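--- STAGE predict ---
source: upstream dedup step, 1 unique chain passed
mode: sequence only
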Amino acid sequence: MDDYRVLADALADDIRLGRRRAGDRLPTQRRFARDKGIAVSTAVRVYSELVRRGLVTGEVGRGTFVRAAPPAPGPALTEPAPAARVDLELNFPVLPGQAALLAPALEGLLRPDVLGGGLAVATVTGTSAARAAATSVLTRQGWAPAPERVLFAGNGRQAIAAAVAALVPVGGRLGVEALTYPVVRAIAARLGVELVPLAMDTDGLVPDAVRAAGRLDAVYLQPTLHNPLGTTMSPGRRAALADVFAEHDLTAVEDTVYAFLRDGPAPLAALAPERTVLVDSLSKRVAPGLTLGLVVPPAAVQDRVAAALRSGGWTAQAFALEATTRWMAGGVVAEIESAKRADAAVRQELVAERLTGFAVRADPAAYHCWWELPAPWRAETFVAAAARRGIAVTPAAAFAVGVAHAPNAVRLALAAPPVPVLAAALDVLAGLARGAPGDDGVE
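--- STAGE serialize ---
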């Protein structure tokens, strides 16, 4: 057995037996190396092994700490926490009254003379009616996809997976924002793709970070209402990135799943149409239970994306395709989008009111916000304390591509609870943050 694993096992035993308690800070890697008489590189491997086992977490500028709780199995944000009474972790907005808007189209689809179409095998190109309806939904700020470019997946995650599979070979390198959608990490792992974290600033992905990353096969990014930060990239930054992608012959996967909540700017696909695969879905616009993934690739890679959708088993089901086409074409999706924009604004007003005085980053149009926690709180400890109060929130580590270090922050998803419940939960969290770990008698 490698020496670093022996040392990792010893530290793991210390944690299991309570000699190192939740929240304890480990020595710096350099100090650990000196104490053990080993190389710093070996100490790095020891700490990386503990992170891999889910026993510790690293926080930028603060150090490495014993986790307050074991990590949830599988990629974060994929399943709701069943014990949580208030879910501020998952972000699937479903408004009261949606069912009444959606039902008439389904009633028409269930007629025996119509249902046959919904029982047939769907293709990745869908139908001409579906392509026209999807084009109308995706049109924004003067940009519209060519209907013949639109392909369909079962949901947004499958759309992302197909785009990555088409652009990045096994063993290839996908550039992503340093904080990114957690499911992309799981997709990359299953496809055998290496994720390369790229630096961000307050305007989003930094162009020079792409230049400095070395060879990349593609870049995945969220320019509008970034998840988890909620920021929206300026038109100037989008133009600068389009130039960088042209310089390095790169194709971008642009995720616009939250863009319906905000007016502009135009998507990156409008600036770099031959270098952008736009992906979207109806999961946030409408609901996750009956949804559709949308992919708009440039002509040069359309066949590869279509082949990835077929081979991955990610093609939309015919019934869902027909139902959502009726919703899009009939104006129901546009009506729900408008209602959700108003709903998100109300929830962000609550955040501004209830979390005043804290370092919260949020766009007034977003369904989520990013909260940089005050000292002495750390993200893992805060998440555990919130859970004891029946509130599920997500630590920054769930979004960090570099697993060893993450900001001392949490993301709050605002969409799920009724507004009065959300207000009460924010009050509880604010009170918790104004206190200190262990004030409730539980460390």
